[in-house]
Amino acid sequence: MKLSVQKTLEQVKSVLISSKSTGPDPVYFVFKELEHEKWANITIIQNGKIGIEYPKTFGHYHSTNVNETYQVLAGEGVMQLNKKHINEGKWDPALVDEVYLIKAKAGDEIVITPEFGHSWSNTGDFPLITCDNWTAGHHPSDYEEVEKHHGLAYYLTEEKGKAKAIPNPNYRCSPDPIWITAEEFAKLS
Ligand SMILES: [Fe+2]
Questions:
Q1: What is the DSSP pairing of strand 128-132 with strand 41-45?
Q2: Distance from the CA of 87 to the center of ligand 1, in angstroms?
Q3: Using one digit for the tens of pLDDT, what is the confidence trace for 1-29?
Q4: How many domains does the chain have?
Q5: How remote is the CA of residue 116 from the centroid of ligand 1, in Å?
Q6: Which domain range does residue 52 map to?
Q7: How far is the CA of 160 from the centre of ligand 1 (A)?
Q8: For 147-189, what is each residue's pLDDT tens digit?
Q9: The domain that contains 100 carries what CATH number?
Q10: How far, in Å, is the centroid of ligand 1 from the Cα of 118?
């Protein structure tokens, strides 16, 4: 396998709750060209804290109308999903219709349909390692709106040893997040 992405703290600071926070650096790595029939990429997200926030991936939407499947190989994390708000056929990126915060552990699989933006946060004490089947690549526009709004709709932070979701004020209004396990989420579809 080959290293395809190494995201430094500097590269993700635009989507953090505070751009001045310090923490694990690089924040995460993505490897591609796995010798495995089902999976295309492995992502390794460092554990620890960036200020009050859990280390996370940048977050993105897909411009291709294809599902993506993730499996957690090791560690514990929360996958944030933001459902696109469509108004008269047009995406309004400052609003989201639904927010899922999916608690996942090793062995869990999460299928993401194209209407959801997504990002992993490592809420555990060890690196979070996930694999996914995404082979369509990414266009810069997949990240644009997330960067413009300084992250997805919620920041995943730690308070008194527990995960706490803080609304991102750069969205006009966000629905309350739905905390759910990966198993429960799989039953919804
Ligand atoms: Fe994706």
A1: antiparallel
A2: 23
A3: 899 999 999 999 999 999 999 999 999 99
A4: 1
A5: 9
A6: 2-188
A7: 31
A8: 999 999 999 999 998 999 999 999 998 999 999 999 999 999 7
A9: 2.60.120.10
A10: 7
Query: How many angstroms is it from 140 CA to the middle of ligand 1?
Result: 13
* Three-class secondary structure assignment of the chain: CEEEEEECHHHHHHHCCCCCCCCCCCCEEEEECCCCCCCCEEEEECCCCECCECCECCCECCCCCCCEEEEEEECEEEEEEEEEEEECCEEEEEEEEEEEEEEEECCCEEEECCCEEEEEEECCCCCEEEEECCCCCCCCHHHHHHHHCCCCCEEEEEECCEEEEEECCCCCECCCCEEEEHHHHHHHC
Residue 169 C-alpha to ligand 1 middle, in angstroms? 24
Ligand 1 centroid vs 70 CA: distance in angstroms?
A: 9
**pLDDT per residue as tens digits for the range 59-118:** 999 988 999 999 999 999 999 999 999 999 999 999 999 999 999 999 999 999 999 999
How remote is the CA of residue 43 from the centroid of ligand 1, in Å? 11
Bridge partners (DSSP) listed for residue 74: 129
Ligand 1 centroid – CA 13 distance (Å): 19
- What is the 63 CA–ligand 1 centroid distance (Å)? 10
> In angstroms, what is the span from residue 59 Cα to ligand 1's centroid?
8
